[in-house]
Structures are given as C-alpha cells and as structure tokens.
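pasting for the record
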Amino acid sequence: MFLTFTSASIVSAALVGQATRFSDAFVLLAVTILCIDVAMGLLTQVRVLNVAQEDLMYVTAMNRLRAAYVDLDPGVAPYLMAAYHDDEAGSGRTYFFFGTRSNLSHLAGSSMIFMTAANAALIAILAGLVLTLIGAGTGTAVLVGAVCGLSFLAVSAYYGYRAYRGIWQRFVPLSPTPPGGD
C-alpha cells in the first residue's frame, strides 16, 4: 500500500507540475505531498516493526510448544526441523533450520530495511526541497538532504537494534539452547 500511495502521489504531483508549469504553487503542493508521503512512510515503518516483533513472538511461542513435545517424548526431537528452544539461538535456528543462516541477507532483504531506506530517501528529498525553497543553493540542499536521510537511516537502525536486543534481555526462556547447541 505504501508503494502504491507514494507512486500515485508522485505521479499526481508530476501531472500538476506540468499543468502549472512548475510554478510556486506547484512547489508548495510538492512539499505538502512529500510531507504526507513521509508521514505515511513513518506509520508504515512502525507497522513493519510491530509485525517483525509479532513474528519473532510467534516463532518463540512455537519453539516453546515444540520443547513441550520433546519433554513429553524425547524421541521426537530428531524429527523436528525447526528448533525446540525458546531463546535467541532457538529462534535463529527456526528461521534458518537448513543451516544456511545468513543474518546479513535476512536483514538486508527485510521489509524493515526497505521501509527505512524508502523513508530516508523521502526525508532527504523533502529536506533538500525545503532548503531550496528558503533560498539555499543546490549543493547545500543536496548535502543537507543526504545528511538528513543518512541520519534517519542511522537512528532507525539503532532503534531497531535496541528494540530487538531489548526483547531478548527481558525475555526468560523456559527451554534455553544448551551450550554447544543441540
């Protein structure tokens, strides 16, 4: 939905720009549209973070249920492909139970990274456009816009990492992975 919304707003702005010959009124409309796009992007990013945390919660809960099965019948353990430990290591094994674990590719291909990058680009464009409106030169607008976008990326990455670490620091597993794995 976010991509459709952003694409439609940009196409609409382009059509208005052509119709108004990119007048001052168009520039104000473009700023307004970018503000709305940034707001929608931030809301979408919050939702994506919530969904990622819910997904982790469900993986951990299923691992806990598998641990109960193993407690009832230890002979079932070799038949489980996903983990049966409800800690961080167990969740990692469940996400990558074929052993092809690649945290970097999983992270880089995540919806969270996509949304953060899209929002950083929108914020950079908005910052540059606003600076241009108040009379800053193109070079200054591009530089400050890039700094704003990269700063947003850094703050979002820090917040996401802190939220993830906070989950595991507060969580008390019932079936932790033994040293050396299982």
